[in-house]
Amino acid sequence: MHSPHCKARGFSMIEMLVGVLIITFGLLGLITLQGRALQAAVGTEDSQRATLLAAEMAATMFDQNNVNVNAATVEAWAARAADPASGGVPNGVGTVTVNGNTARITVSWRPVQSTGAANDTNRYSTDVVIPQ
User: Fold this and answer.
1) pTM given for the model
2) N or C: at which end does the chain have fewer Cβ atoms within 10 angstroms?
């Protein structure tokens, strides 16, 4: 006769597979979470770059004490805004619109992983007013 303790030893193969399955789902969730955290970090970095670019143009205007900055300076700044290697943003477009003594500085960009939809475009704008 078999004693009741012989059947209770060790795990069965099904119990091991269920345990491995649970651990696999947990690790898969962590990997997904890591990917989303990385996307958020890249998006935040792009936003900070756009803010710094706009602040740079605003500082140029304050240095000259005039919102009418020469076209060559605006073109060089817009070229830098479009080049991520030189501190710009991906697919970036920098514009300066002057209306009287007010200038609107806008930096628009689309993230690298963007699908091209209209709601994928990010935008940062700031207004500079220099009384004359």
Assistant:
1) 0.74
2) N
